Known about the structure:
Elements: H1 11-41, H2 48-98, H3 105-129, H4 136-149, H5 156-183, H6 189-207, H7 214-239, H8 251-259
Helix pairs in contact: 1-6, 1-7, 2-3, 2-5, 2-6, 2-7, 2-8, 3-4, 3-8, 6-7
Transmembrane segments: 12-33, 53-74, 186-210, 216-236
Protein name: DUF4239 domain-containing protein
Region (Disordered): 264-285
Amino acid sequence: MDLLWIYTLPDAWFCTVVVLATVIVGVAGLFLTRGFVRRHLAPEGEKNELVSYFLAAIGVFYGITLGLIAVGTWQGFADVQKGVSDEAAKAASLYRDLSQFPEPERTDLRDDLRDYTKAVIQKTWPALQRGETPKETTEVLVRFIDHLGAFEPKNAREQVLFAEVQRELNEMNELRRKRIEAANSSLPGAVWAMVYAGAILNIAVCWLFVSKSIRLHATLVGLMSALIGFLLFVTLELDRPFRGDLSIPPDAFQLVLDDVMTTDREPRNPPTAHRTSKPVTAPVP
Length: 285
């Protein structure tokens, strides 16, 4: 069953839905099993001590497992966030290096890279938040690569600069592919099955207690279920780094666009400018 629609909810509603669902399962299960437990499994509640022992054991194992999974998802979230920052930094370095290219290639390539950065912010990120892979940014990047491939270095300095720009482009493109892969990555289905099954087992053990006060029993089961629900919410939220309110924003790219790529456009030199012995350079922004 596809549950990705839940990521379209605000975080407050997202958390409420997950926690409320676990509480409903816990309290409803208590009322459905209470009569059977009292009549057949633990009459007069003489097995409460045994149930407490098993609840503690199961809770410890499940708590450790879920904690490790939560730490793993957080680490994955942080790695993706770092990758986005590194990708934006590579775009900034690439833009600065292009300032050393002769005209008209310099302006063409910088315009392409600026258009790519804008497309990442305006088109890629909304698509990633919807779980889609946009093609617009790929087209802009291909245009940039085509323009770069058409450039022919005229001297040793331009050859070194061209090789450096190619290296940075390859690194930026590698980070871009990792970002796209991370957009649709998630914990394996078997892991999620274990998480949900463990939650049900922990709640089910609470149903085996026998208490004279149904209100107290229901309250305790509800609190236990709510705690598990909060842990599930955190794990679900971090599992999709580009979905939900807690998703990674395009702030790194916006910062590069505002601070590095928003520069005065240099006037284009005549087409013969790139044939001079000394390339025309622009100040590094």
